[in-house]
Amino acid sequence: MKTMKHVTEEVTPIRLRINGEKVFNKFIAWLFFRMFRREKRLTDYPRLKLALLFKAELENVTDVVPGYDEYEWHFKVKCTSCNEVNNNWVGVNRLDQNEIPGSRGSANLVMRCKFCKRESSAQFDTSPVTPYTIENSGKFAQMTTIECRGLEFIDFEPRATVGTDSGTKFEDIDLTDGDWAEYDEKGGIPVGISEVQAEFKRV
Fold first, then answer.
1. Residue span of the signal peptide, if any (predicted)?
2. pTM score
3. What's the start-to-end Cα distance of the chain, in Å?
4. I need a surface site. Which of 55, 96, 99, 111 has the fewest CB within 10 A?
5. Do 79 and 148 meet the contact criterion of CB atoms below 8 Å apart?
6. Hey, what's the torsion of the CAs at 59, 65, 70, 74, to 10 degrees?
């Protein structure tokens, strides 16, 4: 007749074998995860389409954002992966086409977040840009739409405009303080932009 001690000695190896199988299966699952894991690609991010709405008080100027394609837009950018905001203004040109990593496509803007290192992109809509005219002064008006992946635009800074009477072009306008004032020598009148606001609406 077997003693309780003998029974324990026979059963224990079986328990160890079962535990060993569980550990082995977990190791195999982890190994497969490591082998087939890949970094998230830009094409994996959902598309976010934004409409840029602009508002300002204009004095003797119009076409705050000229409708020519060579114009460089300046935006504040937020990463949608880590929600960090890039403190620098980011310039985007509608004519630029940059390769998207891991894709055959391209976009006007392709950048890497300096915080989480994730790639992101933005592409302007192909429809013509609508300049902000003096007729819209004091009211929000849509300028353009932009498709984003991995990022979101949260602010906009215009940097060019045209005198209403003289046709004089004013470039490199600084609106960091929220307004701008100049004198149009050709037209003989003061010109300015004040109470600047920009909004992005999801469409």
1. none
2. 0.70
3. 82
4. 99
5. no
6. 110
Which residues does 143 contact at the CB level (< 8 Å), separation at least 6? 52, 53, 54, 65, 129, 130, 131, 132
Q: Encoding tokens for residue 137? A: 């002064």
pLDDT, one tens digit per residue, over 74-117 is 999 999 999 999 999 999 999 999 999 888 899 999 999 999 99
Q: Which helix (H) or strand (E) holds 151?
A: strand 151-156
**Among 85, 52, 51, 64, CA closest to 195:** 64
Reading the block at residue 168, the tokens are 């004089």
CA 196 – CA 158 distance, rounded (Å): 9
Render pLDDT for 160-181 as a digit per residue (tens, 0 to 9): 776 677 788 887 787 777 789 9
